[in-house]
Amino acid sequence: MLICGRCHCGNIGFELNWTPEPAQIPARACTCSFCVKHGGVWAACPTGSLIVTLRDPAAVSAYRFGTKTAAFQVCTICGSVPVVTSEIDGGVYAVVNVNTFENVDASMLQPASIALDDEDEPTRLARRVRNWIARVEIKAAC
């Protein structure tokens, strides 16, 4: 299933190739203060691939807090956060915000809250390697 998403103004867009085809999509609402304030509800397909396209890369800010191991890709034009990336052992891993999906029936989403504040850094990075999208390409739009 090809899932398309973008920030409100379209500066940050993505195509997530979710394979195999999902019957439902787990959507994790992180309880950290940043995600709560920005509507971050995250999904990832570890067996899929993600292409992130930036129309104006200069209008994207990578916000980091806490352990500073994740970069929330914030569009500085509209303020949306459609993608989070994490660089681990030379690879880039990512999750996408289901609130930025454009072509997914909401009934497919399986929402659940998740609290990650008590994770230590090695546990957090290992979880990302296991559960986040591992094939990530970030490119400027043509």
CATH class annotation: Mainly Beta
* Biggest β-sheet: strands ordered side by side in the sheet: 6-7-8-9-4-3-10
Radius of gyration: 14 Å
| CATH architecture type | Beta Complex
Describe this protein with a few key phrases.
single chain, 142 residues, mainly beta, Metal Binding Protein, Guanine Nucleotide Exchange Factor, Chain A, 7-stranded mixed β-sheet, 4-stranded mixed β-sheet, 2 helices, 11 strands, globular
Any overview of this molecule?
- The chain is mainly β and 142 residues long.
- It has one domain: Metal Binding Protein, Guanine Nucleotide Exchange Factor, Chain A (Beta Complex).
- Helix content is 12%, strand content 42%.
- It contains 2 helices and 11 strands.
- A 7-stranded mixed beta sheet has the order 6-7-8-9-4-3-10, covered by helices on one side.
- Strand 8 (83-88) and strand 9 form a beta hairpin.
- The longest helix is centred in the last third of the chain and has 11 residues, at 121-131.
- It is globular and about 40 Å long.
